[in-house]
Design a protein that fits this description.
There is one protein chain. The protein is flat and about 60 Å long. It has eight helices and eight strands, in the order H-H-H-H-E-E-H-H-E-E-E-E-H-H-E-E. The relative contact order is 0.07. A hairpin with a 2-residue loop joins strand 5 and strand 6. It is α+β, with helices and mostly antiparallel strands. The protein folds into three domains: 85 residues, no CATH class; 58 residues, CRO Repressor (2-Layer Sandwich); 53 residues, bsu07140 like domains (CRO Repressor, 2-Layer Sandwich). Strands 2-1-3-4 form a four-stranded antiparallel beta sheet. The chain has a four-stranded antiparallel beta sheet with strand order 6-5-7-8. Helix content is 47%, strand content 16%.
């Protein structure tokens, strides 16, 4: 039992390390080669766990080789357009100028029901509102609506709102985050001044966010949002 636990822990660490080196991707965002590598890593890691007669080092070496192979393939894809198209495929425009490309849909094995389902997920319920729909290499669908159906932006209304940046997490569970301070452009003194004005200490704060303008949001520990 102890041997199994140790083997599992060791392989778990190396699998996580390998996936981290490959980069952060959700399953739905993976390219075909990335998905294949991920599946192979999980299968290879399971073999030494299930069969204690298999050396753990064999699994580690195999995982390492797959990670190296993935890095090499990614590097090749970055340097060569043709290689990228062979490995990842090409995006397919299945709706162009509001017209469905039925032949391409058949070749890509995309049904009208599939298309309508993805459009509904993106809050598009009428296919005649779509100017372009592009099936990306990772299987996701990018949609551009016709101009008359697009949501008006500040630029369309001839307005120029200030860039407030994004609310950065500056305090997490009572701890000050230097990265959040850098992102928000705030100083540690400014944060302390805000806490002091609300009679709070770091330890009393569950989370605090702040943007470039100094606008902040605080959740105290034990307080429901």
């Amino acid at each position: 039992m102890l041997v199994t636990i140790l083997r599992t822990a060791i392989l778990y660490v190396f699998v996580i390390l390998g996936l981290r080196i490959m980069g952060k991707r959700q399953i739905g965002d993976m390219q075909p080669n990335e998905l294949v590598i991920t599946i192979l890593i999980s299968e290879i890691a399971a073999i030494p766990i299930q069969d204690i007669n298999q050396p753990v080092v064999n699994g580690i070496i195999a995982i390492f080789m797959l990670v190296v192979l993935e890095i090499l393939i990614s590097f090749l894809s970055m340097k060569s357009v043709k290689a990228r198209q062979v490995i990842n495929g090409k995006s397919a425009v299945i709706v162009k100028d509001g017209q469905l490309d039925q032949k391409l849909m058949k070749r890509m094995r995309v049904t009208v029901a599939d298309l309508m389902e993805v459009l509904r997920i993106q809050n598009v319920f009428h296919i005649d509102q779509v100017a372009y729909a592009i099936l990306e290499t990772n299987g996701q669908l990018s949609v551009l609506l016709k101009p008359e159906y697009q949501t008006a932006t500040a630029a369309d209304l001839d307005k120029h709102p200030a860039d407030d940046g994004i609310p950065a997490l500056v305090i997490n569970d009572g701890r000050l985050l230097k990265e959040g301070l850098a992102l928000s452009g705030a100083s540690e003194e400014a944060v302390e001044q805000i806490l002091k004005s609300q009679r709070l200490t770091y330890k009393q704060v569950f989370l605090m966010t702040m943007d470039k303008t100094g606008k902040h949001y605080i959740v105290r520990k034990g307080m429901e949002t």
